[in-house]
Amino acid sequence: MRGIKMKLKGFTLIEVIVVIAIIAILAAFLVPNMLGYVWRSRMSRMNSNARSVYEGAQLAITDKNCGKLGTIAPDCVYTGSSDCIGHPDINGVEDCSLRDYLGENFKGYFLFVTNSEGSGCVYALWSEYPIASSDSDQLTMEKVKELAQTSKPKGCHPLKASS
Known about the structure:
The protein is 38% helix and 17% strand. It has one domain. It is an alpha+beta fold. It is built from 3 helices and 6 strands; from the N terminus they run H-E-E-E-H-E-E-H-E. Strand 4 (109-114) and strand 5 (121-127) form a beta hairpin. The longest helix has 50 residues, at 13-62. The chain has a 6-stranded antiparallel beta sheet with strand order 3-2-1-4-5-6.
């Protein structure tokens, strides 16, 4: 056994550098694509939450869950948060409860705008950050994409047609 020499083999420096270069090239292609998926997923989640608010507002208005008499102000902006109570931007108008429609696990901030008859919802916005009634513009998909990369992203449903 003394006469047998064990020869250890390893990777050469060139082989290691080639492997690292291949990994770097793959990462250069994959990382931007993955970031794109993350942004699209974030926009989808925001628009989906806005859709939930929109549908909840439609149901609350239809079921007469707004105000003491079940009336809702026409052309009014309602803002709210995780308590699911929409507060109107017009003085003397009753709040609108979306609690039965959004559920107890609802998180975030919302805004919805009523139609000119007060019989439905025109559109809704949702965000993880407070939304002021002055920020009540209906959003296009381009605007949602733009806002998704800011510190205060918002989703909208239905989206406004591109101009």
